[in-house]
Specification:
alpha+beta; elongated; four-stranded antiparallel β-sheet
Length: 168
């Protein structure tokens, strides 16, 4: 009789544990999927030439979250082609990754165009002789996304690989 009671208790414990695990798993998936959604959309981006200055990044971002964005980190890969190269020759582009922080207030559902200066003088894309010859037509943005987004309620969102980025 004792053996049966232990089995019944064990079976009841396993059923209860499975039920609790299922509920816990459901909430974990729900929380993860809610946090994983991309809170922004990049509507457009371009490089703007300023006289005797490095180019600015013109970036139009839409806040897709229900929270106010206060700052973000833009990660972009910039490619540079030699303006003197012949298009028939196979000269590879030089690429470099840039990380730029910017502060802005972006309310939920709001779109805003920001002009972010790029500090290219310190870049390995340029030798010291090329500093005076920065031509925006030689640059191409290969990849761009918001790596981190900071909200007014002191929370944040990260996309370290760009896997959640939404373009156009």
């Amino acid at each position: 009789m004792k053996n049966k009671t232990k089995k019944q208790k064990s079976s009841a414990f396993q059923i209860k544990t499975k039920k609790n695990f299922t509920i816990l798993l459901f909430f974990a998936v729900l929380i993860f999927s809610a946090g994983a959604k991309c809170p922004y959309q990049i509507l457009s981006f371009s490089l703007n030439q300023s006289e005797n200055l490095p180019p600015d990044l013109a970036l139009t971002v839409k806040n897709l979250s229900k929270k106010t964005i206060t700052a973000f980190e833009v990660l972009l890969t910039l490619s540079c082609t030699d303006s003197n190269s012949d298009s028939e020759t196979d000269t590879p582009d030089t690429e470099e990754e840039f990380s730029v922080f910017t502060s802005t207030l972006l309310e939920p559902s709001e779109c805003k165009t920001l002009y972010i200066p790029l500090e290219l003088y310190s870049s390995t894309l340029f030798s010291s002789a090329d500093k005076t010859a920065l031509d925006v037509e030689n640059f191409h943005i290969e990849n761009i996304y918001l790596r981190q987004v900071f909200f007014q309620d002191k929370t944040g969102w990260k996309d370290l690989t760009g896997s959640y980025a939404e373009f156009f």
